[in-house]
Batch of 2 targets.
Target 1
Amino acid sequence: MIRKPLVRSDVASMLFVVVPLSILIMFFLAPIASITTGLLTFDWRLLLTPFYVGLSSVVSPITVTHVGGETLIAIRGFDMGVITNSVLNALIVTLATTAIGTSVAILVGLFDFPGRRLFAALAMIPLLVAPFVNAYVVKLLYGFNLQGNTVSAVLEALGLHVKIGVAGLAGVALTQILSFYTIVYVNVLATLRAVDATLIEQAVNLGSRGFKLVRSVVLPLIAPGVFTGATLAYMLSLEDVGGPIVFSFRKVISYQVYLFFRQYALIGGGGSAAALSLLMLLLAVIPMIFLRRYLSLRYYAMLTRGAPRPLRRIKLGWLGKVVAYLVVLPILVAAAAPEIGIFVLALCHRWVGPFPTGFTLNNYAVLFSEPGVFRGIENSLIYVAIAATAIAFLGFSAGYAIARVRSVVTPALDALSITPLAVPGLVMAFGYFVFLHGIARGTPLDPLISPAVVLVIAYIVRKMPFTVRSVFAGLLQIPSSVEEAAQCLGARRLRIVKNIVLPLAWRSLAAGLLLSAVYILSEVSLSVTIGALGGDITSPNHCGPITFVMMSLIQSPSTIGGAQPQAVAAAMGTILMLLEALILFAALAKLGRRGIVSIAM
Amino acid sequence: MTRIVVDNVTKRFGRVTALRRVSLDVREGELFAILGPSGCGKTTLLRVIAGFEVPEEGRVMFDDEDVTFKRPDERGAVMVFQNWALWPHMTVYDNVAYGLKVRRLPKNEIDRRVKMVLELVGLKGLENRYPHQLSGGQQQRVALARALVVEPRVLLLDEPLTNLDARLRLRLRGEIRKIQRELGITTIYVTHDQEEALALADRVAVMWNGKVVEMGTPDEIYHRPKHLFTAFFIGKTSVAEAKVIDADGNYVLLRIGDVVIRALNHGVSVDDGSAVVVFKAENARLKPMWRDCAKLVGRVLVTMYLGASLEIRLVPHGYNRDLSFYIPIEEEIPRPGEEVEIYLPVSSVHAYPVEGLELVKEILGE
């Protein structure tokens, strides 16, 4: 007598699976899948034209001109067409961020030297994200312009009559490298902390030191962290719109998809956006799949007996110190400078040339006095409140279901709940537009009728994974026997969740929600695309959130409320950064450092 | 009191078969132990009986009731988990009272029963403590009290003493036996500790590789093991390959190297040629102490002092491997290289058909 395995779970536990799964199918899978519908009539040969794929650069990488007694050096990188630019730029950014992030993590995590804590603090600063303003300050500090940037002014003061700066794709790349290397840094550092110290101590014990130790033992052990960080940096580079907008470099995929919302969404057209979205999706997801496969094969760093011991840092030799102070420290300072510059810009009257002028608090006053600007803050707070409430229910359900409910569809929920992290926001935005404008035209789900509703749904889906993973990780720490003990005493599923699971797992839920909330606040891709469909910031009833307002201010040519619009954006950016710092700190306290890095990244 | 019948139960997890046509019959009011090495399927079997797993084949009966598809709480079987599964956010009182609150008993009745059961397990006065404020032994008692308070038909204990130190384990197993006798609840006790199983249980089922290989009283299991695995697993044992010289229904005459010994016969015939011999090595002596003795002569390879006993690794004459024997420490200690005679009662020497050698190799991971 052979029985089919029964689905044993009661109705309540199936709800934990079915509700989030249905939402993900409806508002994640369906929109992504619908992108392909626009491609049936698309002429793919278009993507092979020089505008998209070029064989050689149409700009020279560096131009040097002499004007008067001055030398002007503009570093522009290259321009080989939309697709080539995006891919090459992402690869360059990945290589650079991986090299810098890994080096700094090893330096700070493995070695001891005077000033180590300063290095660690500097490396964390770019984790605070102020979209658009960050790129704007990079442009002020390092960007090429005829008035000269801050670096050139410093060189001038040193007696060098040279104006040097980045422009075009090189500016985009520099902006991305300076802020994304931190992603690699925190991932590598977290992996390094999880490595059993005895593995490294054994090598030291056998006489391995310095570079040899790093190359032969440390690097192989932290490779999973390096690859995870590199993949994330690659994806962030691919979908970044802030850099291209600020440096006015339109020939990357992200900008082209963004343009669809600026130019074609309302009037129709822009057929290549679907193809580019799909291409972007493939470019983003394929490395992610390889990473997952690779990570599932490599966990030997933890394959030692007994509890791992924390590492005692090794004294850094003189050569190491020279490299640390003369090479690494300047890079860390250069990367932290834009974030510090944002605070300066927020407090100054005007900053367009090399240095800021005048101190003022007016930029903060404008945040509240200008209706269009304040509307953005209101919108963000409302969106976060609604989305976080929904995420609390859906994210908890999904996390609980993945950890506890055995059913044939649970693996699907497991995979689907994490995938939104791997899909670029711009692709999602495009998918939402095509899908909902298609099937729900004229209803409150049509992004042209009520962009706010669609934006909140998109936030929920895109930022729920943080809560799902946090709840899931929290539940892994709780043996399922505590629930089974209640079950065999007669408690039903909902009662067990209320009496046993929530009291034990609320910290993970809270930490996950905080992360989801902070990433909603700083979300860019959906905010500047779907968020833009409700009008611009001159309209007091627009639907854009904070990041949309920041983008609008950064692009604005005229003063607002008597203030420089970019400085107002910076003021907004500082509030956002403080909020991020506060929330990340709170989540850190709830989860412990290791937990947060694995979830946040 | 409830009788439990497990009838031909098979349980698979994906490609892994955890239980293969397992059958058990646990009598009313009995304390029944399931004994086996880790990974043998004993906890899975307990979870099938508890209702946490549904078998692909077979059924579980409580008295005349088929409970195979019933939820754990519908069966009236309560489990005490290996990690005790105490709820850290609840006091001792709340932990114990939980099952009664779920059953919506009146408050004074809950109070009365919680007090009674806490007294029974010796935790009176600790009602307001949280689990982290208790010692390991006290936590274990809370887990037991929480299960007993709902007056279950069946009590299921999954290695409940594993996380305790040796001294406490001895004391608590005595208490568990006493409480079980007092309440007369049919109890199944899962353990990998053979001493615990033999000391506690009315009857023992020995499991290996997803199967119940043997069932019997502790005495039968220890002294008259029918299955090679039982003989090998219970007690300190040594295994050798031997040539069969002669055999009848009860005994078999064997040659290990050049040494001839007599052993209890478990299905060996002269035609087999060879056999596997299992010695209950802890019963060995350096002098003949029994009328019916098996004698092994050989050279001492090494000796190891174990406190109460001495381990001698002996290479029997003409044999290519060493065998371990354990003799009481008061005996004269032989030196390595010395020639000695080792004696065992024939009842401690069991011979099985040679096919069993593969099984032994598998268990030893060779």
Target 2
Amino acid sequence: MKKKKEFMETAVHGLFLCLGLITVGCVLLITIYLIVSGLPAIRQIGLSGFLLGKKWASTAPEPFFGILPFILTSIYGTAGAMVIGLPVGFFTAVYLAKAAPAVLKTAIINVVSLLAGIPSVVYGLVGMLVLVPGIRTFFGVPDGAGLLAAIIVLSVMILPSVINVSVAALEAVPKEYEDASLALGATPTETYFRVSVPAAKSGIAAAVALGVGRGIGEAMAVMMVAGNAANMPSLFASVRFLTTAVACEMSYAGGLQRQALFSIALVLFFFIMVSNAALNFFLKGSKKR
Amino acid sequence: MKKIVTLICTFLLALFMLGGCSGQQGGKVSTDGSTSMEEVIGVLGEAFMAKNKGVTFTYNPTGSGSGIAAVKEGRCDIGLSSRSLKKDEKAAGLKETVLAYDGIAIIVHPDNPINDLTLEQIADVYTGKIGNWKELKGKDGPIVLIGREAGSGTRDGFESITGTGNACKYRQELTSTGDVVATVAANPAAIGYASLAAVKKSVKALSVGGIVPSEASVKDGSYVVQRPFVLVTADEKKLSPTAQKFYDFATSADAVKLIAGAGAVAAK
């Protein structure tokens, strides 16, 4: 009897180990595959020519593979989305976690979860049919598709991750902290911003990192509103992100062009690794203090 | 522990067994060539495999030039080319059969007063020589050029017919015909190109040099923004029975509807 129990225990243990290894295996497989298929093109084009080249013309008889416009667009686009999305998400989270009445809170949290569940292609579609013509008439430019449209779409898309993670972090702040602050005569608003928010700092930093990750990795919605011409980024210009550069051309690409697309994916992968590493660094730093 | 390992191994092996289920009996048809023909040949290949159980149909999207070379060197049964064969290629013993015509419509917003452009005007617009609708006797305002992504068959077709290869100054590069139509329909200053079959009432298809694009004008060649989809075979080498069967199927009346569904005009 005891032996059987022991056997079951090891069996379940082994099963879970296998399942856990699947995830690790996937990450390893993708990393190795990206590096192996991304390096040859970089070696052929040259690292500085690839990363700092300003011209991308992959199917021309004399092709150019410079991805500086894509890198800058991805950085500007994500930064812009954070500039718009972060304040909105952050203040929403403070309100929801601390000040909102229970009924309203449940309602808003549900709506935010719904926002997270909307497929990115739907964001893209609405952006393409409503936002792009809107920008065109509002600003009086010939065409509305471009960096600004992408920033607006991205800022809405990062809201759910920013709000959800921030709310969780703010709610985890011990009530005693706030009670002490209130007892000392601070107003509720002072308490939220001087006590609760600093106490939830690391969680809010995580929300920012999550938002950056979501923004930099989004392809579908951006592809439908950004215009996709390989220009240097400016607010109303048609631009191409790192993600859309890969997605646009992959279906028909061959030869060096295809390899270069893998190299772009490798650069994108590197960016996401850096943002994750930065996040870990900040989280650890705040825990030590 | 041993038992678990055995169990897992059995499970994995069972999975691999499933992979082996695709049958290998029956003949094989291999095609090679034009990426523009991907949709047409894909639809035909699927229908052919559905009709003839056990037949394997392969398509290698390499480009018209490589497809023609592959037939010449006997690396595939049927080559696919989205241009007519050149004289020297015919002299080298290759035979062309026009399978279908690919008509590309030039589309603008329905409110745009312009109805007709010449091929030269279209080329000038797309290379940026003409940047304002006023120069074409339209309303004053910049022209917004909508196109397809690099590598798209429609883009390749449009650029090769208008002679604007790699010189187009696109404002937007979209990844599907539907996106192009929707974008042009939403912007009064836009001009775009799309497969003729995909043009809807939400946009206006321009006539080119006075010829209105239609199935008839594409077929008789009077509408110039079009190109043939060609099946290339070797003259002296006989097709294998299966390949011959596919060739007959693709050029039969049954295929007309399938070809139209894939956005082209059947030659029959």
